[in-house]
């Protein structure tokens, strides 16, 4: 379980996360939604220990983040689909990650097979498509077989088969009792796999409901979208317009 209590983050004088409180429970898929710039990635980065909260506390399975010497075996992070070194193979990128996190090297073949990259394990990641890098990103998150999995927009770039695979994977992880937290813009995936939905806007929690409650708030042929649009309407930072 991830618990975030009263967490704020300031960059200079800019308060980008403002007194955020929510929990992601074990055995559930919690989605973190919100418009561009709402603070989702900043919250994810603080959970990963890549950035320190200016205020508040984050605990994972009851322990404050600061107590972990490494979170690698406790939480699996997939915070970005990128080639760490484009000359290195997928297997080498995961070996580096395993070594850094004290994770057994034998897990690498398992996760490469799990994400469907076993046949291209030796290929330089610089030659990977975006979807292949996304699969590698997810492989990294699964590497330690952690109780808690945190993913930033994991469905981006996946092909149709990959999207269906990811859905099954996430549902299986939750069914196995894992805590899954996902930042996303993809309401279709939220509708299919989400249990709890937290919506941020301008750094604040605008809504924290179950998927079913959010659906019930909406109307028309696309109730989830309509509920989301209503909740975030006054918190949009970037809206497309026309020049007069
Ligand atoms: N390192 C940084 N220094 C200064 N400001 C930052 C930094 N990182 C993020 N921000 C600002 O924090 C705010 C929240 O950004 P964040 O990336 O968390 O939003 P997001 O909800 O993930 O957006 P998106 O949906 O576009 O990915 C933005 O205004 C952004 O400009």
TrEMBL record:
The keyword Thylakoid is annotated on this UniProt entry: no
Domain of life: Bacteria
RNA-binding as UniProt keyword: no
The ABC transporter domain, residue ranges: 2-227
GO molecular function (one): ATP binding
Entry-linked PROSITE patterns: ABC_TRANSPORTER_1 (PS00211), ABC_TRANSPORTER_2 (PS50893)
Pfam families, sorted: ABC_tran (PF00005)
Keywords: ATP-binding, Nucleotide-binding, Transport
Record PANTHER family: ABC TRANSPORTER, ATP-BINDING PROTEIN
Family statement: Belongs to the ABC transporter superfamily.
UniProt name for this protein: ATP-binding cassette domain-containing protein
The organism of origin for this protein: Skermania pinensis
């Amino acid at each position: 379980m991830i618990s975030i209590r009263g967490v704020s983050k300031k960059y200079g004088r800019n308060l980008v996360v403002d007194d955020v409180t929510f929990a992601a429970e074990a055995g559930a898929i919690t989605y973190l939604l919100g418009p561009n710039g709402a603070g989702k990635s900043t919250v994810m980065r603080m959970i990963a220990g890549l950035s320190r909260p200016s205020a508040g506390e984050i605990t994972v399975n009851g322990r404050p983040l600061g107590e972990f010497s490494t979170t690698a075996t406790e939480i699996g992070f997939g915070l970005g689909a990128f080639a760490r070194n484009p000359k290195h193979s997928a297997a080498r990128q995961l070996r580096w990650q395993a070594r850094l996190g004290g994770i057994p090297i034998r897990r690498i073949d398992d996760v490469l097979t799990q994400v469907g990259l076993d046949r291209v394990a030796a290929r330089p990641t610089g030659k990977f498509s975006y979807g292949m890098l996304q699969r590698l990103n997810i492989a990294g998150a699964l590497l330690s077989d952690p109780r808690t999995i945190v993913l930033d927009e994991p469905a981006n770039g996946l092909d149709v088969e990959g999207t269906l695979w990811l859905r099954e994977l996430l549902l299986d992880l939750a069914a196995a009792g894992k805590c899954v937290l996902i930042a996303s813009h993809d309401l279709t995936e939220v509708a299919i796999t989400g249990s709890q939905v937290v919506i941020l806007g301008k750094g604040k929690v605008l809504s924290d409901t179950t998927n079913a409650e959010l659906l019930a708030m909406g109307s028309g042929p696309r109730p989830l979208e309509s509920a989301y649009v209503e909740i975030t309407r006054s918190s949009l930072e970037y809206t497309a317009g026309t020049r007069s």
